[in-house]
Write a structure and sequence with these properties.
Layout: E1 2-9, H1 13-24, E2 30-37, H2 45-49, H3 62-69, E3 74-77, H4 88-94, E4 97-100, H5 123-130, H6 157-162
Parallel strand pairs: 1-2, 1-4, 2-3
Length: 163
């Protein structure tokens, strides 16, 4: 039986679903030993820190992640940052394959008028802040709490959650 060692960098939905795909493709002749590496102290990425508090049902996908994590041959290593604690080159030496399953930590500029005004925020900044993400000290201009009008650009999950 062949067993391949796989490193998955990122313990968010993309990382867990990559692990699930590998686990589902195992046979009697093909096995995978999966080490998942996460820079945060906790797994699940946006499921934990990016889903709006008023959408608890969406967070039930964590039950799927728990099943993946308790499958034989799966290990999770948190507080390990790619490029700081370990390099891609080092991972490539240690594993048969490396899957990079990280999201963007920064919002993308839309190059539209007003996006550089005070309190004009990307969803990448705002959503983790209102979910009390452990690494997001968001600074807002004075008077932000007095605002009662928001303009939202986009129709993705974050835009819908903010709305």
């Amino acid at each position: 039986m062949a067993t391949y060692s796989i490193a998955i960098v990122g313990a968010g939905p993309a990382g867990y679903f990559a692990a699930q795909a590998l686990q589902s493709s195992q046979t009697d002749d093909l096995r995978f030993a999966i080490d998942m590496i996460e820079k945060l102290p906790t797994p699940w990425g946006l499921v934990r820190s990016g889903v709006a508090p008023d959408h608890p049902k969406i967070k039930t996908v964590s039950k799927v992640f728990e099943k993946i994590a308790t499958t034989e041959g799966f290990n999770l290593f948190c507080n390990v940052e790619l490029g700081k604690d370990v390099s891609v080159a080092e991972l490539r030496e240690m594993y048969d394959a490396v899957v990079i399953a990280t999201g963007s930590s920064e919002g993308k500029k839309l190059e539209i008028p007003g996006e550089d005004l005070p309190n004009s925020l990307s969803a990448a900044d705002f959503v983790p802040w209102y979910n009390a993400h452990c690494q997001v000290p968001l600074e807002l201009e004075d008077g932000f709490a007095d605002l009662f009008t928001a303009r939202i650009c986009g129709a993705g999950e974050a835009a819908v959650d903010i709305n």
